[in-house]
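Support case: user asked for a sample of complex input and structure output to validate their parser. Sending the pair below.
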Amino acid sequence: MIWRQGLLILGVVFVADVLQATVLSRLGIPAATPDLLVVAVVALALALGPTEGAIAGFLAGALVDISPPSDTPLGVNSLVYLVIGFVTGFVIHPRDRTVWVSMGLVGLSTAGAALATAAIDALLGSPRVIWSEVPTVVLASALYGVLLAPLVIPAVAWLAARVAPAPPAELRLPPRITDMS
Amino acid sequence: MLSRRLRIALSILVVASLTFIILDLRGGEGPLSSARAALSSIMGGVQSGAAFVFAPLTSFNSWWGTLNAQSQQIRDLRAENENLQLQVRIAENERARVDEMNALLKVSSVGEYAIVPAEVIAVGPAQDFSWTVTIDAGRDDGVEPDMTVINGQGLVGRVLKAFATTSTVVLIVDASSAVGGRIATTEEIGIVSGTGRQDSLDFQLLDPLAEVRSGDALVTFGSKGGRPYAPGLPIGEVVEVTGTAGQLTRVATVRPFAKVSALSIVGVVVQPPRTDPRDTLVPGPGAVVSPPAPSSEPTSGIEVEQPATPAPEVALE
């Protein structure tokens, strides 16, 4: 089942990255860009578990960094997203995966991602970070993430049930996000 | 606690991320950078396709502002289209009429830029504070790094990386961008640097005693060989001056002519003009943009090279 999970992760992350660069970034939404990648990583981690979440986060971050308009150092987003994927898969017990917990988690993750990338970029000497605008960006990013979550998480859970139906042993607990649909 | 599998996976991934960061910051050419360029090239191609598919959603300046104003969008696009056509016509006629124009108006030719037209197909997320976009023209169309990118309003930015069919453009408002600028009327020069905010640039005069007023227009003074910035392109208008004459930190705030948050069609200057067109391209009362009388022989002064792959057209009739 490993290759099926790999396929699922690659597919979801790829589609999310293309959509984010060509559609979401260009809609002119104020203050921040809806962070579809982070929501997708959280959704994958919820559906597949912490290891797969970390792998998905790493791949998503790498893809963001190599996708053309990006001019950030390769690896920064990988590091941030893999932590998000791992933590999500690790701290959320399958029984706690209600709509509200998932949405709150996505809000925290998107806010954390915006803050962490700004902090790491600044530490690495990027001249771009405007600290006075960081709070706005972080809050807006969290808000958009929370709004995306009810669309993305059930879709990824549904895909995961179709493409990679056998959950890993430590996660063989009944319903996964059934109450979200 | 953590299973062995999870521990191993986490360690590998974290080490890989840190390795990427270190290698990337170290810079230079290597297997990693060429692999990255190859993958970026592929992603650029995918973005071209996706941008074409999602054109109905994104080809307009602002989705939010135009949800219930479709007719406004059409009007805007038509106006932009007419504006671009007008510019092409002006440029074509200009060369044929250049002698009379020079004698009459004491200006030099407007239309000697060779431009590759391109469309913006992807934009970087606002979260990383960078102002970079992907355009659908690349090496195959003659685009190379450090070429100037303009649109109908003025200077947009410069090419940062060129891939096979796409390129990454860093916009003038990006905090890492610095352009040599000249006040159109007084010839005073200085550095125009991006602030990371979409509607403001900082203009630092080289001569702290020089006079600068709000309303002054800035043009590029050009780089050697026209790279990264071709000369004479309008940059923006001074809106505020802070500090008094003589102060060391005398900075003018400049509003760029090009609206960078809503770019769609841009041009890459693949060949700068032989002579600096001075400030003839600046919009406003001083500019020579009166529609030319229909000329008998429209000699092509502006070479609009078509990209090898036709850019997806923004058609909404």
